Amino acid sequence: MKENRKNTLNVPNLRFPEFDSNWEEKYLSELMTFKNGLNASKDDYGSGYKFINVLDIINNDFIKHDCIIGSVNVKEADFQKNIVEYGDILFQRSSETREEVGQANVYLDEETPSTFGGFVIRGKKKADYNPIFLNYLLKTASARKEITSKSGGSTRYNVGQETLSSVKITTTIIEEQNKIASLLSKIEARISTQNKIIEDYKLLKKGMIQKIFNQEIRFKEKNGNYFPAWEEKKIGEVFEVTRGYVLAVTKMTQSSDTEYKYPVYSSQTKNNGLTGYYNEYLYENAITWTTDGANAGDVKYREGKFYCTNVSGVLLCKKGNANPCVAELLNSVTHKYVSYVGNPKLMNGVMANIKILLPSIPEQQKISSVLSAYDKKMGIESEYLDKLKSQKQYLLQNLFV
Fold it and tell me: What does the sequence similarity comment in the record state about its family (predicted)?
């Protein structure tokens, strides 16, 4: 590919070498005709034709018949009037935020058509374009800005058929569209494969955990004998049960440096609960769990020195019981003790009274080594996945005008 260092109007930063003509502005109405979806009575939903709704647009990279959530029972004539076929583009009609209104997705099922709902606008293909290319183009910052800037509303933002007809995009000849679509599809397929690899490792680890914790797999001492029988213990008998402290986001940094080097953990699911970095730490080599909110009961082993917020409980033990093995043992049972009266919660007193079967510390160390090996491999695969996603993002930012 070639890079255009002196980018001129209507030329992307990155191109295949065989293309050098300017891209052209076109109205979406030159490429497709628009129609609102059908509205049925509530008794008609749940069976019949697959029925594309807003969640199908938002939750998928592209839409195929089998991934559509809902269905609707309508007459054949109504289905044909509202048919969705390969290459059609679906738009979200309204949203509570301007940033999300008019989100687009493409229907890529060549075998089975579908229909669509009243909160969706269908763009029926009438001109030559590569559907995959157009799907990516409509997700670029410039295309999103063109759509959202034309949306109307105050408490809820909307786009209509006339709005979408007036949207201008910058596109290229079909041959270049095909090349770009092919490249991005290959990147997408590799990302999908990488996700599958990581999920497979997660399943392998889960299966191993089940066999170890059911004691189908046992470990032996150096003399060849099995380690001692596991003993039932209350968490409060083995650990000091405490929790983290409030820390304002403004006091953290989002990346580590020589001063702000201690990770701060909270209740969020992304980045393994990592919220930022701080210049002080509270604990070292301990087990944490989420005390409040949607992730209440989630247990993690935290290696090294760290800070954690007040929605994290902490288990401290100087005798060696704080390790990945015990964290996984706990994680397999703690969710049964979460209270769902009001906000989900698993507080210190409840945690302290949970009983689990504990292996001896030497066997815990053996089990922890096995589990850590899985985690290390998944970490390597996850890093590669992040690189693939960064590569895709770079291409999306530079292959379009």
Answer: Belongs to the type-I restriction system S methylase family.
Rounded to whole angstroms, what are the CA distances from 98 to 91, 95, 230, 393? 14, 7, 57, 23
* 26 and 166 within one domain: yes
In DSSP notation, 296-356 reads: TT-EEEEEEEEEE-TTEEEEE-TTS--SHHHHHHHHTTGGGG-B-SSS-B--HHHHHH-EE
Taking only the tens place, the pLDDT of each residue in 307-321 is: 999 999 999 998 888
CATH number of the domain bearing residue 391? 1.10.287
pLDDT band at 89 (very low <50, low <70, confident <90, very high): very high
On whether both 50 and 118 belong to a single domain, the answer is yes
Say if strands 262-265 and 299-308 run parallel, antiparallel, or are unpaired.
parallel
Model confidence at 6: pLDDT above 60? no
* 118 lies in the same domain as 236: no
Give mean pLDDT, residues 215-231.
94
In-domain check, residue 6 = no
CB 295 within 8 A of CB 286: no
